[in-house]
Amino acid sequence: MPQLPQIDSLKTPDRAVAQATRARRFPWLNLPFVVVIALIVCYGLVIVMSAVANDPDYSFSRQLAGVAAGIVAMIVAWRFDYRRLSDFTTLFLIVNVVLILSPHIPGLGVEAKGAQSWIKLGMQIQPGEFAKVTVILLDASVMARYGGRLDDAREYAKALGIMLVPFFCIMTQPDLGTGLVYLAIAATALVVGGARPKFLLVTLLVGLLAVAAVFALDEVLATRNPDGTVEYKLLKNYQRSRLTVFLDPDADITGDGYNLRQAQIAIGSGGLFGKGLFQGTQHSLGLLPEAPTDFIFCVLAEELGFFGVMVLMALYAALVLICFRIASASSDLFGALVVMCGVGMWLFQILENIGMDLGLMPITGIPLPFMTYGSSGMVLNFIVLGFIGSVWARNAQKQH
């Protein structure tokens, strides 16, 4: 007598079959990825809402508009086949140069905070932020040509030269913070793309020597006024202060040193569980400058404490781990490079933003991903998420 099937097997469909069916119907959807994104964005909106409360210089509705526009842009990028972009290195280079230099166009560019970084098209837009996407695509397309191994010194120099073009363009504004992000993306592409470690080490040493040379030459060219003030030529005074104040905050107790002290006070006063949402005093009393932008992490730490910070770190870690899995599952190097360059950009921004608030890194104004106030940065991050989702979707289709 043949054995009858178990009752449970009649009622419960095979889980693997169900997952495969969902993947065939919705090849573009990665549920864990979407859930983590939603949690990070909502968390950021709550903190920004508190940071901009009672501050007429900022608009929470504008932040919501940035999120809405970003979601639309993410869906478009997600549904687009990223593989079509792998051979457009020259186009990406041209687009980068045009975007980054556009604030220098008379009548279009707007100067703010000592930098010519904005353009006005009905509303103020920061092209350098959007160029981060094309920098990712540029660097990924450059390194994808070498098939995961770059041993030739001339080819390495050529690739590096192309990747440095956006950095030199952004320094004409000048916007050092965004320029450092471009360098972080390039470094990620070189490492993931298989550049020889010896080449990378030499590049790092040359870069450090170049920085030291700029500071030394600036001291020689500086103009010393009778009143004791010094005017530097290569780096503006505020740029030097931001880069060096973390080494000695007391050297500028009324400027960047003061800002750093207030940031540290805000973080330390939060304790384990914080003062509570909308209860922070450092930013509400105006003691913490640029709280919604440069020092948004301090608002989070003061109001939600160490626990709130650890929640954010856990969400960031989950996003990075999911992206690692997407990159490792990619069937082509270009897709893996796009994902990892996006991750490299976020990791550098997280490290620098939190590090500068703690007094461990120079103050550069680099935004905290999905947390810092600003619609340009929010839309940019969503576009990067969309391309990462595109990489996942195309490989999921192949598997099913």
| DSSP strand tally | 5
**Number of H- or I-type helical stretches:** 14
End-to-end separation: 38 Å
Please indicate the percent range of residues in DSSP E strands (runs of 2 or more). Answer: under 5%
Provide the gyration radius in Å. 23 Å
**Mean pLDDT metric:** 85
Helix % is 55-70%
N to C succession of SSEs: HHHHHEEEHHHHEEHHHHH
Largest sheet: 3 strands, antiparallel
Structural class: mainly alpha
Shape: globular
- Main sheet strand line-up: 1-2-3
Number of domains: 1
Poorly predicted sequence stretches spanning 5 or more consecutive residues: 1-13, 19-23
Write up this protein.
- With 400 residues, the protein is mainly α.
- The chain has one domain.
- It has 14 helices and five strands.
- Strands 1-2-3 form a three-stranded antiparallel beta sheet, with no helix packed on it. A two-stranded antiparallel sheet has the order 4-5.
- A hairpin with a 2-residue loop joins β1 and β2.
- α4 runs parallel beside α14.
In short:
The protein has 400 residues and is mainly alpha-helical.
